[in-house]
Amino acid sequence: MTIQDNFRPAPPAEIAEPDEFAALRKRVRATLAEHVTPERLNKFDEAEEYDVELFHEIAAAGLVKLDGELHGPGPGHQAQAVVLEELGAGPTSVAVSMVVQYMGVQLLHSYGNHQQQEEFLAPLHSGAAKMSFALSEPDGGTDVARAMKTNAVHLENGSYSISGQKKWIGGAMDADYLILLARTSETTRSAIDGITMFLVPRSTPGIRTEIIDTVGIRGLAQCDIYLDDVRVPAENVLGEVDKGFRQVLDTLNGERLNGAAVALGIARGAMETAIGWARERHAFGRPVGSFQGLQHSLVDASVKIESARLLLRQAAQASDSGPGTNETWSALAKLAASDAATTTTDVGMRVMAGWGFFRGLPMQRYFRDARLYTFAPLTDEMTRNYIGEKHLGLPRSF
To answer: What's the chain's Rg over C-alpha atoms?
Structure first.
């Protein structure tokens, strides 16, 4: 047998948490244990294909809908974080896709009318459909509202004609629909005004997508979207006309939390892989995990993981407590989890040395995938700017 056939990561540790989330975590782990193997993860990463069947299994297990109600409140942030951490530790590309699905779920719960929830949210809950969130553009990421060139012209018959380009849109090649933002009015006082959110079936004429070749998250295609006179009926406006960007801002706390949860999962998966290797791999007649230098590096990374977990739990609990939450907790959690993921995957590569480079083992995938959360959904630098202003009370730095 080859070394990758013999190798097994350390088993996931039990996590102290309230009973309802412990039960949920057990359900997620059972679903993944039934359907996911190292060979399957490697297959989809190497093929650069999305594991749509796994997404269907996740949805069938109730892990998209969670405790949400179709025409009522959406799922809680603590529950989402549990699911995403477990996915991040294994099928990371599916975890990143689920961040997008949860964002769509939240937007449809918050702003969708009864008909939109029946048409778009219900199939998302069941896994019969998946969506992509189309916001970023070639000339704008963090400042996309100011840079937005995609526009929607209101026609005499009440529908809209949308033209422009979107960039870095995950899963757009095979999404069933897009939640897409376009400018509907000229910028006046604020760049974030005059932007509207639309529900756009992917099959609508005038939409063309191209895959962007990326170094990480290879099981979820990042895409360019080209829009040429895409006709969308007025009933597909999600929320209020000209208020779409402000509506999205209300969901960013959840997106930061969910990004933190996936990054935490990546860090944990890399740690379990590194510990398994350190226990089994021998050099100079003993396990490499017995060498003090490697132990100290793994301990330091473990401290970052557990610190990020506590911040994430605090942030998710605060978010679930209702409106008016101090959203700096989610920024702190995202920054800590990003640091934990990049640190742990770097340590893991050093622990495994040349075998970390081997594409038949998962450390190199964790190492690549972790880099996403140094800039998504917001760069670590902009996150620090936000924390400096909102948490420390310092003057705005940008």
So the answer is: 21
